[in-house]
Amino acid sequence: MDILRLSSHSDWITARESLSSGLRIGFVPTMGALHAGHLALVEQARQTCDLVVASIFVNPTQFNNPEDFAAYPLDLENDLRALDSVGCYAAYCPQVAEIYPDGATARTMDLGGLDSVLEGALRPGHFQGVATVVDRLFDLIQPDVAFFGQKDYQQVKVIERVAALRGGLPHIVACPIVREPHGLAMSSRNRRLSSAQREAGAAIFQALRFAEAELQAFPVPPRALKLEMRRIIQESGVLQVESIDFALAHSLTPITDGEAYLDRYPEPVQAFVSAYAGDVRLIDTHRIVSEGYVPDTEV
Ligand code: AMP
Question: How far is the CA of 260 from the centre of ligand 1 (A)?
Fold first, then answer.
C-alpha cells in the first residue's frame, strides 16, 4: 500500500514539508466504514486536486444517541486499502484528544439556524457537532477544497456556512449520491442491515422518485404526497418512517403548508426522508421540483 497513514497532526506537517509548495490539496472527511460513496468523493477530488487527504474519525459530538455511537461500524484496515485503491495520498486517523484537546464537546457556532430545522430538529445538537469537527479538521489539514456527499444534503449547507465563517476557504464541493443498484443510498450504517432490510430499503428512493414523477404530472399538494410516500415506504412492513419533509433547496426553509402546491415556490424543492429498519436509521434526499417558480411578468 502506498497510502500514508497519519496518526497525528504532526505526521501531516512532516508529510507536507516533504511536498513541493503550491499543491492543491483536496480533503474528504469521513467516519470510516467506507463504501463506494466515500470513494467517489476521493475520485472526484483527484480530478481537480494534486493530492487527496481523507480523514477517518468517528466524531463523538455529532451523535445525539449514545447507542448509535457505540454501534457505529469500524473497519480501519479495509478502509486504508480502499482509499489506497483509489489513489488517496494520505489518511488522517486522529485520536479524540487531538481533535478535542479541551474535552469532546461541540462549540456553539452561528450556523444561521440551519442546524435547527429538518434533520436538526430531529437530532438536536447534531449539526453543531458536525460543524465543530469539520472546522477543527479544516484547521488541522488546511485544504484548498473539501468534498462532501449530497446524501447529507443539510450537512453540505452547514459546511458551506462553516466555510463562509472561515472567509470562504476551503472551497466546498457537493458530490452526487451513490446508490446500491436497487436504489438504496449507500451508507456505513447499511452494514448493519439484514438482507431483507437492505431489500426493503429500496422503497425509500422509490418513494422519492415517485414524488418527483407525481409532481411532473400534476400539482399534488404536499400533505397528500407525503401520505403516498409513507405508504410506499411502509408497504413491505420492514421500514418505519420517522419523517418526510420538503424544503426549499437553497435556503433549506421547511415547507410547512400542507396544501400549497410545491411548484409555486421561488426555489427548487428538496425532499428528505428518514426511516428505521430495526434500530438502523436510514436517511435519503432527492430534488423533487427542479426549478423554482418564476411568475409571469405583465407586459
Ligand atoms: P460519513 O462517513 O457517513 O460521515 O460520510 C462522509 C462523507 O461521505 C460525507 O460527506 C457524506 O455525505 C459522504 N457520503 C456518505 N454516503 C454517501 C453516498 N451514498 N453517496 C455520496 N456521498 C456519501
Answer: 33
Residues having CB closer than 6 A to ligand 1 are 30-31, 37-38, 40-41, 148-149, 151-152, 175, 177-178, 185-188
Pocket probe for ligand 1: among 59, 152, 205, the residue whose CB has the most ligand atoms within 8 Å is 152
Active site annotation includes 286: no
What is d(CA 299, CA 296) in angstroms, rounded to the nearest whole number? Answer: 9
**Per-domain residue ranges of the chain:** 4-175, 188-289
CATH topology of domain 188-289: Pantoate--beta-alanine Ligase; Chain: A,domain 2 (3.30.1300)
Each residue's pLDDT tens digit in the chain (299 positions)? 899 999 999 999 999 999 999 999 999 999 999 999 999 999 999 999 999 999 999 999 999 889 999 999 999 999 999 999 999 999 999 999 999 999 999 999 999 999 999 999 999 999 999 999 999 999 999 999 999 999 999 999 999 999 999 999 999 999 999 999 999 999 999 999 999 999 999 999 999 999 999 999 998 999 999 999 999 999 989 999 999 999 999 999 999 999 999 988 999 999 999 999 999 999 999 999 999 888 877 65
CA of 18 to the centre of ligand 1 (A): 30
Question: Same topology for domains 4-175 and 188-289, yes or no?
Answer: no
Domain 4-175 bears CATH identifier 1.20.1340.10: no
